[in-house]
Amino acid sequence: MKARHFILRERFMNNIYQATEENIARAAAVIKIGGLVAMPTETVYGLGANVFDARAVAKIFEVKKRPAFDPLISHIADFDALPEYVETDERSLALARRFWPGPLTLVLKRKGQYAGVDLACSGLPTATVRMPAHPVAAALIRQSGVPIVAPSANLFKSVSPTTAQHVYDGLGENVDMILDGGACKVGVESTILDVTGKEAVMLRAGGTTLEDIEDFLNEKVLLSHGEPDRPSAPGQLLRHYAPGHKLRINAETPAANELYIGFGDRDGELNLSPKGDLREAAANLFSFLRQADALAGGRTLAMAPIPESGLGLAINDRIRRAAHD
Ligand code: TXA
Ligand code: MG
Predict the structure, then answer these.
(1) In angstroms, what is the span from residue 235 Cα to ligand 2's centroid?
(2) 50 inside domain
(3) For 40-61, what is each residue's pLDDT tens digit?
(4) Cα-to-centroid distance, 15 and ligand 1 (Å)
């Protein structure tokens, strides 16, 4: 965890660094020597390491306090990186060309023998890959010269980080560098699509909508809500993304002693999107859950109903898990 002491001379207030060209170059050096860098993506901040470096990958699990059975997504900046460790076919390449860079993660068959990839994939025969649409992530991956494996940069089960400060609040100095690239524009994690079988299966609703994927493939995509006891399916633990206070969802109106997070016309102390825009709501979601936690005091939290279409699928998935007892 001490890589920054070899590379970084100046220390600021903490380990957050503006994503300048110089700091991105330093962060790439940290990745190359096996350190951990938190990087901005369009969805949420990721806690990144070299996917081929098993010790670095192990550190991710340690820092997140994440059980080693939950596999990680690797991030690439160029299509050439794919054949190094995964297999593609016509359908997966077409999806990648259409939706990358962007919030779509593909489950692909693995190839080759790499201890780091093994650990990142929890020994599964598949690997998850995406190309993030964020210039800082792309620059960092290119300069590191390797795919960067990165789960969301938060403690296991807690709310995902959409700012550099959120990363610091959760992981503190256990990360060698946190690159600050501003607030994440999408705000919920990528959609995970398994394309290893005959039919495409959505394993996690996310920043790319089901409607867009089905339109493009011109076929029905199956939905998997995961099995809580089978860790090979993603993000499916029933309690996840959890704020510190109890959360009631689909609340038409607040009850006494509840802090109400509104949506559209249902206004509250906070409102995910006063104009009822699901994109805005997704971008605000995790940050507002944190704010609500901070403001609630002795109260509990309640959230207005969110429409179950487009990005609403991902928002509802996250808040259902956040609300689970
Ligand atoms: O938007 C995102 O996807 C963010 C940013 C940082 O890219 N990353 C993210 O990673 O959300 P994480 O680790 O918090 O969630 C990854 C999910 C997990 O639920 C994991 O179970 C699933 O992906 N996953 C990883 N590899 C898998 C595989 N081979 N098969 C099925 N699910 C997999
Ligand atoms: Mg996560």
Answers:
(1) 7
(2) yes
(3) 999 999 999 999 999 999 899 9
(4) 25
